[in-house]
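RECORD TYPE: protein structure
NAME: Lipoprotein-anchoring transpeptidase ErfK/SrfK
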Amino acid sequence: MRRAAVIPLVILCLTAPLTAGCGSGTSGTPAPTAPAVRVKPAFDTRRARTDRGLVVRARGGRLGEVRAHAAGVPVPGRLDASGTVWRSDWALKPGAEYTVTARAAGPGGPPAVARGRFRTRVPEHAFGVASAVPLPGETVGVGMPVILDFDTAVRDRAAVERALQVTSEVPVEGAWRWVSDTRVVYRTRSYWAPRQRVTVTAHLSGVRAAPGVYGTADRTFAFTVGRAQSSVVDARTHQMTVTRDGAVVQRMAISAGMGTTREYTTTSGVHLTMDKGDPVRMVSPGREKGEPGYYDKLIDHAVRISDSGEYVHALDNVWAQGRANVSHGCINARPDQAAWFFAASRRGDPVTITGTDRELEWDNGWGFWQLPWEEWLLGSALNSPAPTPLPQR
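PREDICTED:
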């Protein structure tokens, strides 16, 4: 008699948590990762890039402390919303040694601590601010722009623009606009609030302007916005009204450009007072001595309002002032009133002219207020209305 084969019974554990008698009894939940800290540039680097700044990251936890110094000076920076990434606000100084201490804590083990140092590279070529307007400590009008000229052509405009910071005691919206490879202009959306201090800082140290070209020093200056003075000129009625802090302080009969040619036509639009002289030599443009219309005169109490030769100035032709436009494009007024305006004017005071068929170009002198705000923003390398710069990355 044949016996049946015996087939052994095998029980497979497919899922350990569902079968108590199978497996090693572990819960299957991953063990927490011990916290770790990573610093970039890496410690002991001898020629670290400057334009990417300092970045500290935590893994498996959150940063509780980040301290960084260069030559004993704290490095400003900020922690992101997750608490895991800290970035320096600005680029790093070239040829400097940095020391960093960072701590991170998490649920997976003891806190992690990273301590070390690195050194940044020295650039092949340096660039910086060649000139700035306004002058440090200058008191200006409410329409004043900030104009920075660089000593080298800037190819990475966005990087340089991120490094430019304007802070005012009264918050205001403003933006930079590039007008050339070496010039950038800051204009506010509306006029500055009067009687406040404004500080401009170009955090250029370590910023890359072009291949091999880096900033080696920051530049900071401050100016004061004074009283709110503005003037309105109507070339049709031949009148000029000066207002200060909302009250009329002077009414002046004037004579504007005769309008027989383009150059003799006063420009309409929002001008700013740019500089002044007493006297100023004025020579007819494009004419030689002896030709019709040639002149070469010294003019008293002249306040410049454009780059095309327009001034508000004194002239003793009271027969025309208030009655007819007979000038070569300037606004002339009675000598005593022109002297008053000369003394009362500060750079950046708005002078709005109406009543002519020639419009002031936005890039004629400081005609920046001729551009609508949305159009002004298009000249920003960041294309953003926010005046607060972003950290260097």
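COMMENT: The CA atoms of residues 36 and 158 lie 33 Å apart.
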